């Protein structure tokens, strides 16, 4: 929640993931590693992952709602859908990092995520 604005706080959070030490990026994330290893096969793992996802996406949805209220995002953006998009992007970044993606590559993903959030709901110019 810290930052000069809700969208800036999200950007900072995502860049911390992208810019983590290479050895830390290579280890991956416990949650993502568990999903990759067990999928839906283990009920305990599935319950833990579902609980974690609900909590994480609730936090992101609140942040998106605040960014929308602050005028940083289009009024039509749906916080739950945007939160799921962000969570999915983070999972993808974690897998990519484990597969050897560089901090620069992950940073480019962050650029795209932030740009996509800003563009969502923006009217497309007619050609």
Give a quick summary of the entry.
This protein has 127 residues and is an all-alpha fold. Helices cover 72% and strands 0% of the residues.
What brief labels describe this structure?
127 residues, mainly alpha, single chain, 0% strand
Structure description:
The protein has 127 residues and is an all-alpha fold. It is built from six helices and no strands. Helix 1 runs antiparallel to helix 6 and helix 3 crosses helix 4. The chain is globular, with a radius of gyration of 16 Å. The protein starts with 5 loop residues before the first helix and ends in an 8-residue tail after the last helix.
Please outline the helices and strands.
Layout (H helix, E strand, L loop, with lengths): L5 H13 L3 H6 L2 H9 L4 H27 L9 H20 L4 H17 L8
Helix pairs in contact: 1-6, 3-4, 4-5, 5-6
Give a short account of the largest sheet.
none
Radius of gyration in whole Å, from Cα?
16 Å
Shape: globular
Distance between the amino and carboxyl termini: 39 Å
How many β-strand stretches? 0
What share of residues are in beta strands? under 5%
Number of helices: 6
Low-confidence stretches: none
Q: What structural category characterises the helix and strand content? A: mainly alpha
Q: Can you write the helix and strand succession as a string? A: HHHHHH
The average pLDDT is 88
Work out the helicity level. over 70%
């Amino acid at each position: 929640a810290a930052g000069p604005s809700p969208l800036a706080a999200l950007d900072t959070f995502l860049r911390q993931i992208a810019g983590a030490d290479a050895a830390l990026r290579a280890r991956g994330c416990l949650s993502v590693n568990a999903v990759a290893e067990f999928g839906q096969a283990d009920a305990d793992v599935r319950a833990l992952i579902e609980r974690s996802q609900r909590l994480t996406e609730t936090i992101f949805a609140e942040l998106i709602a605040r960014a929308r209220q602050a005028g940083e995002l289009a009024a039509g953006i749906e916080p739950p859908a945007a939160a799921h998009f962000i969570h999915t992007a983070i999972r993808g970044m974690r897998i990519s990092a484990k597969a050897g993606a560089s901090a620069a590559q992950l940073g480019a993903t962050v650029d795209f995520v932030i740009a996509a959030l800003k563009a969502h709901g923006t009217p497309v110019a007619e050609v």
